[in-house]
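Table S2 (continued). Query chain:
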Amino acid sequence: MSLELSKRAAEVKPSSTLAITAKAKELKAQGMDVVGFGAGEPDFNTPENICNAAIDAIHSGFTKYTPASGTNELKKAISKKFKEFNKLDYAPDQIVISNGGKHSLTNIFTAIINPGDEVIIPAPFWLSYPEIIKLAGGVPVIVKTKKEQGYKLTAEELRAAVTDKTKALVLNTPNNPTGMLYTEEELRAIADVVVEKDFYVVADEMYEYLVYGDQKHISIASFSKEIYDRTITCSGVAKSYSMTGWRIGYTGSSKEIAKMMGSVQSHQTSNPNSIAQKAAEEAINGPQDSVAAMHKEFDKRRKYTVERINGMPLISCVEPLGAFYVFVDAHEVLGKSHKGETVNTVADMARILIEEYNTAVVPCADFGFDDHLRLSYAISIEQIEKGLDRIENFLKELA
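Corresponding output:
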């Protein structure tokens, strides 16, 4: 057959993080002692009260279609959470509940992008942003940030990237893959540029509850009506409540955008899973003890991982203040020799680590930084210790 397939779909790269995680699971299934630093998901079970809410939903027959953009009960819970935690007023009809954070982003870019519209993405970035934007017909504009600035976009860098085709900025705080957190001062400076130049902010705040030390999460939309009107705020229950497989994400936006996203979703997927919506309602409305317990454990792992990495030769990291990732600068490794093989790229380093040291890490070329790698500390402290020992052994064997 000579029928041509979609050029747009052909340009999309598969997720390297999912590929690495799959490789680690495959080796584990073969009986190998693999440490996987790849997965962007907590290692904790979903809290029992949330699971029980799902079981109750099944037994009570809550297994039918719901409204396409989500149940009103869950929207009310999210509206209350937005007001109390984010200092944002989003009424239920401004909220769209979707099948996970990626689906929320797909809805957003489908709703706001016309062919050729540009979307500014600070690098390093979560690797799915450019691909979702391209699928919607948009043009990703990558702005590389600096390690000395904590890998964060400055207002000056943003202003320099704006053109007459700019439709939106993707702003991810706390950040994946860096774990960096934008301060109020930094966010206000960015908001001023957005309002002045008049484009949207897609504020991905999925890791908002995972902030450490004396820092606090701030939503950019909370500053003024002008920036609020231009912001689509995204979050979900996956990371904070250890509900990655439940697939519930949500957005707060203007009524106009929410209506459009709801219409798109009604044709593409219909409603999010009815049972998962009941579970998410319990997650948001119910006891938060488990969230605090997970947060405490993540913080312990974070401190240990940072201390170990910065004590090793050839690699270093800036201390992350949020999420559960450490962004490792490995540029000094490049050009070194391992058992006669030159390590030319961080991808080479990752391959050697998985093949010879049974340790999976994520090389970050697909995140916009080809001399860095990402380690997730969403695994047990024992696994972290073992994996870091192996990485250190690898580094000491380089010539």
